[in-house]
Amino acid sequence: MRGRGDWHPLSQKKLALDKCSLSPSPVTLKRLRLPKWVKTEIPMGSEFHGLKTSLRQLNLHTVCEEAKCPNIGECWGGEKDTATATIMLLGDTCTRGCRFCSVKTARQPPPPDPEEPVHTAEAISQWGLGYVVLTSVDRDDLPDGGSQHFAQTVKEIKRRKPDLLVECLTPDFRGDMDAVDLVAESGLDVYAHNVETVAELQRFVRDPRASYEQSLAVLRRAKHGRPNIITKTSIMLGLGETDNQVQQVMEDLRKADVDCLTLGQYMQPTKRHLKVKEYLHPDKFKHWKEVGDSLGFSYTASGPLVRSSYKAGEFFIKNLLEKKHSGAKTSFEGQLAD
């Protein structure tokens, strides 16, 4: 990604390489027309506007807005105790430059707000949320990558609202497993980290400091101290990956004992970002859900508008958590509506 910050980590040479590798012909450089199944309604409603106003007053950031998520109206507009939000900790400026992401970048972002864990917890405890996702930009400028900030926020939330389910969608912390342990042992309910794409496209899609193996290592490590913790990851489709490559990453994730998988359509946030190579039909996403179920994922959400923090997925994960807590075997029926 080339953000609005003062640092652009992608050189012209790498951009040229990307065009050559991901766009082999002039035809593929054209922007594809948006199919009807990925169009969404304009966000509205009292819950939506109330949550947005509260965020502004408290100077809190959400990935829902920063990443231009198409589901923001549905997630924020839920009824009391069903609405969901993904809070972005550690500021709104990332030290990395992934080419699919619209979050702005800088080599040295402003220092984290030391009061953010408390302010976030106080705000969340007053909202009508049943499930909250905490995520962050990458903070390679911090010695611990921001892991202590994550852990403290979880503890503050649980102290005020113990029944609220908390998911942490973390960076890779540069492969620092002590940082992963710190977050995993903070009292959260779900540990999420996204592999984003297939192994073969990693270096063209993600920042060079990220890697496929490093992401798998983070997901494996999250269960190291807490074997019963739920782990979750997400894959974007439509970047030029093949079916065999998608199949392989799903198998690799199961070998890493990942519990939950979401697959969604990549959407180009601006003209400066990677172009969509293909808009997959909903039937293709249905196929990948069936593959995920057959491979043994406890929960697979697959659809054009599904995102790693999609509200519908959290409904199923709530049930998964309740069944794990009761010791019952988990089995879900039905499918997500596209």
UniProtKB/TrEMBL annotation:
- Pathway where this protein functions: Protein modification; protein lipoylation via endogenous pathway; protein N(6)-(lipoyl)lysine from octanoyl-[acyl-carrier-protein]: step 2/2
Which residues are [4Fe-4S] cluster 2-binding?
Answer: C94, C98, C101
Recorded GO molecular functions are: 4 iron, 4 sulfur cluster binding; lipoate synthase activity; metal ion binding
Q: How is the cofactor bound?
A: Binds 2 [4Fe-4S] clusters per subunit. One cluster is coordinated with 3 cysteines and an exchangeable S-adenosyl-L-methionine.
Q: Which terms under GO biological process does the entry name? A: protein lipoylation
- Lineage, top-rank taxon, reads Eukaryota
**Binding residues for [4Fe-4S] cluster 1, per the UniProt record?**
C64, C69, C75, S309
Which protein is depicted?
A: Lipoyl synthase, mitochondrial
